Amino acid sequence: MEQExxxxxLEPVLSSLLDDPAEDAFxxxxxxxxxxxxxANAISISKKRSDSCISYLDxxxxxxxxxxxxxxxxxxxxxxxxxxxxxxxxxxFAKNAIDTHNLDSILVFQAIRRRIFFYIVTLENAVMxxxxxxxxxxxxxRLLGLACYIEQINVLLDMLYIYDQLxxxxxxxxxxxLQQ
Length: 180
Hints:
The protein is of the alpha+beta class. The chain has helices spanning about 1-20, 35-40, 80-100, 145-150, 155-165; strands at about 25-30, 50-60, 60-70, 105-110, 115-125, 130-140. It contains 5 helices and 6 strands; from the N terminus they run αβαββαβββαα. The protein has a 6-stranded mixed sheet. The longest helix has 22 residues, at about 80-100. The chain is globular, with a radius of gyration of 16 Å. It starts with a helix and ends in a 14-residue tail after the last helix.
């Protein structure tokens, strides 16, 4: 059910927003454990991987992740525990990617049914990671809902602007170490 929701409604919208072939950036439905989870310093609450990611293609290998996404279909949409756990996992995926690849920020999203919530996770100082909600959009189920989708264009433009401005390698050479 989750894969059908993703491929029918969410993937066409998200790939059209987040794919940038000119920059070798691609939105992908992934089924592999990402490099950030394999890192020695990575935090993990499970061996599960994100449902989707944004990454760069360098010739024939995928480079650091620039974003992650989790999806909950209709059957799981009222399960607050599962939704909260997915949001926590997104924060951990983002923290691991920021640390592993020296990023300033990373985009994450959570789709619940056809509603997509966009967040930016950023490292505010050496030890504090903050997740900000950028906004949410409802993906239409049919053509009649397209007018409502177009009314949400400002949220999508804000998300793209923030993603373009903040999601890149950090300018300074910082290394994050947390005291136990």
